[in-house]
Amino acid sequence: MTDKTTIEKNVVGNFITHIIDEDLASKKHSNVVTRFPPEPNGYLHIGHAKSICLNFGVAADYQGICHLRFDDTNPEKESDEYAQAIQRDIKWLGFDWGRNKFHASDYFDHLYGFAEELIEKGLAFVDDQSPEEIRENRGDFNRPGVESPYRERSVEENLTLFRGMKAGEFADGSKVLRAKIDMQSGNINMRDPVIYRIKRMHHIHTGDKWCIYPMYDFTHCISDALEGITHSLCTLEFEDHRPLYDWVLDNIDIDCHPQQIEFSRLNVSFTVTSKRRLNQLVEQNIVDGWDDPRMSTISGLRRRGYPPAAIRDFVKQVGVSKKESVISMTVLEDVIRHHLNQTSPRVMGVLDPLKVVIENYPEDQVEMLTGANHPQDESFGSREIPFSREIYIEQADYKANANRKFFRLTEGREVRLRHAYYITCREAIKDEAGNVIELRCTYDPESRGGTADGRKVKGTIHWISAAHAEPIEVRLYDRLFNHPNPASMDNFIDAVNPDSLRILPNALLEPGIAEQDADVVYQFERNAYFKRDKTHEKDKPVFNQVVTMRDSWAKVEQSAE
């Protein structure tokens, strides 16, 4: 029998798990049922990943159930495209709702019935004020609310008007149904909130059945109760909504009363996670879609090449608390880098090629050398790499008249070719403009695997056989914003990093790599981690830079603190 204490938890112990432990111990609940309730009005982002991992992870840790429930109460902004993308993202992250997929719209008949119940109890009324009048009369933190002149309508009149709203007898925006609570409350959410509005729009799930739609605060708590949710986990911005959540459930005839528990949302520096701002980036063609690899969307992270297991590890490392904070992008990238260092096969890719001719190597000879696929893990095996007289190296691996601190190629200096021989640069060939276009070198045929005289070189560089190199396009992605908190700016678009994408159209790769599994992330030795991106390929394979080998933003972040 497996010792349960040895099973790794999805969620590190926190104040939420402590509440659940107490509820189970006291027999308040015999099982755990959570839910993830996205609105299908955009793509999920890195912040949603925390909520997904928490809700599905807690359910799994307690052998419970997590529901996927679409909060589809606003047909104006929702689409099936978004709903399908949400499901793909959740499954890609490694979670599955099984048979437990629901829609808030599944409960529209129930919700309507509960609204009539509130009217019958004198706890809801139909208001004829305009949206602007309602907003003004609700007051603010310094000014109490003013009761609607329609607040004391009779139950009979309210029922007649509400049924007329449902039957389509009134124009959009002409009437709303409001809960009758307390216009003097210090919590503005309790100042007679709107719970139904008229909106003649086609709904992605119910079609044209309804012309009135419930508001989120009314819908969410009832949906939780109807589904038997035990712990309704949401982010801190809903803390002030909890009294309304409880008020609704306390005043309708329903058996279940879930507990709403708030936690801090996941904020990452150098990103925006507002769907409105993300949509603005798409609409203004600053990015090439919701799945642009520079976006903070889960689909963008997937296309970039971030492994789902690494994102789960990041969320787990960040933890769960009630304290709002901003997690450095460096932390996320370090987690990705650590994961890929363990899981990525090594290959050689030359991003900015410079031709090298090894003059004393036989012209027609091709030699197959052996390279380890992972220097720290023999289970990855090895591969054969063709070597010939003409190879390509990186332009940056040659410098004319270099000093002693430059350990790569310069005239008269010897370096090791990775998995191959020592070569010595003899001459640099230049074009008419003075640019180096070719190096003439010699090799030591006895230096493969070491030299008889035991001499050492300080530099090792990567290379690719010219005759066997596969042309690829490389896309070097950097942070989309050059400000740690773009959302704090008057116009966050001003923080867009003009160097967030650099395309290298003439890169080269070892033969046979591009045709392998496109989901594999490779380390191009000495360069970065890359994953093939078939989204916009035309005449050659495209590889996205997932993350660099080392953090290049540390100084920028330190100066911003």
Based on the model shown, name its key terms:
alpha/beta, elongated
What does this structure look like?
The strands form seven sheets. The protein has a seven-stranded mixed β-sheet with strand order 12-25-26-27-23-24-13. Strands 21-18-19-20-14-17-22 form a seven-stranded mixed β-sheet, with no helix packed on it. The protein has 561 residues and is α/β, with parallel strands linked by helices. It has helices at residues 15-25, 46-61, 80-93, 108-120, 131-137, 155-166, 216-227, 242-250, 275-283, 298-304, 308-318, 329-343, 554-560; strands at residues 33-36, 65-70, 101-103, 124-127, 176-179, 194-198, 212-214, 231-235, 259-263, 267-268, 326-327, 346-347, 349-350, 353-358, 367-372, 382-387, 390-394, 414-417, 422-430, 436-444, 460-461, 464-465, 470-477, 501-509, 521-524, 528-532, 542-548. The radius of gyration is 31 Å and the shape is elongated.
